[in-house]
Amino acid sequence: MRHPIFMTLCAATLGLSACSPPATDGQAEVERALQDLNVVDENNLNDIMLTVGDANEAVAYFNNANANDPGRIELQRGLAKSLVRANRPQEAIPAWQTVINHPESSNEDSVELADAYIRNNSWDEAATTLNTIPPTYETFKRYRLEAMVADSREQWDKADSFYETAVGLTTRPASVYNNWGYSKLTRGDYAGAERLFIDALRFDDDLFTAKNNLVLARGAQRQYALPVVPMTQVERAQLLHTMALAAIKQNDVSIGKSLLAEAIETHPQYFEPAVRALEALENNAVN
């Protein structure tokens, strides 16, 4: 009679063993789950620091993260990007060089290094870096930077070709048209510059730099009427001030004085730069 009871107890014991893993295995699974959760949380935090966080706080965060966990390319990239956002290109350059030397670096990282060089006015280094990228790697940012480097070397045909390619690789080309227009402005092609600034505003009518540059291009052609583009009252006053300075530069002083007076009257607050400019003209006329 004892034999069947013994067998039943053994079966029950075996069943319990099969259903409940040893404590050490369970703990390992929990730790793995927590580790995965930490990775997700860390990635979210990294993204936040790269976008909405204060740039200098992001630099401190990624510096600390790299010190605690060296060799991770996403942390090295985070530091390099944060330094660029913080307007610290001189420090961003070696940070991007560290990324480039990582075995997991990409062509995009080389483009970002070239961007840091340009922000530091290191044009030759930017050109050298861009030349290391295969021509088959075609992105908006790559060609935008290529155009800027060509501009710096006054290689106008190349610049135009690169700007045109960059425009075709983005759905938001306003800034490219603005840069391209400024390039034409520096070459003395004022009509061409005007057309490109209008194109920029067609894609982004809030881009004030394009409005200001458009006024400069028109002023250089002695066209002193403000362009028909959307503008606030403050922007109108600022653009009248820019147009006035352009007229004075062309020796159309009386027109410049009239535009300055209109700018002062238009601005909803005291417009000190325009007031100073008008007073200087009137004092010169008296003297």
Percent range of helical residues: over 70%
Individual helix count: 15
Shape: elongated
The largest β sheet comes out as: none
What do the pLDDT scores average to?
88
What is the CATH architecture term of the domain at 50-125?
Alpha Horseshoe
- As a whole number of angstroms, the C-alpha radius of gyration is 31 Å
Q: For this entry, what is the oligomeric state of its chains?
A: single chain
Stated plainly, the CATH topology of the domain at 50-125 is called Serine Threonine Protein Phosphatase 5, Tetratricopeptide repeat
How would you describe this protein?
The structure is a single chain. With 287 residues, this protein is mainly α. It has a domain at 50-125: Tetratricopeptide repeat domain (Serine Threonine Protein Phosphatase 5, Tetratricopeptide repeat), CATH 1.25.40. 77% of the residues lie in helices and 0% in strands. The protein has 15 helices and no strands.
Report a brief summary of the structure.
This protein is 77% helix and 0% strand.
Give the secondary structure arrangement, pairings included:
Blueprint: H1 2-19, H2 23-51, H3 55-68, H4 73-85, H5 89-100, H6 107-119, H7 123-131, H8 140-152, H9 156-167, H10 174-187, H11 190-203, H12 208-220, H13 233-249, H14 253-266, H15 272-286
Helix pairs in contact: 2-3, 3-4, 4-5, 5-6, 6-7, 6-8, 7-8, 8-9, 8-10, 9-10, 10-11, 10-12, 11-12, 12-13, 13-14, 14-15
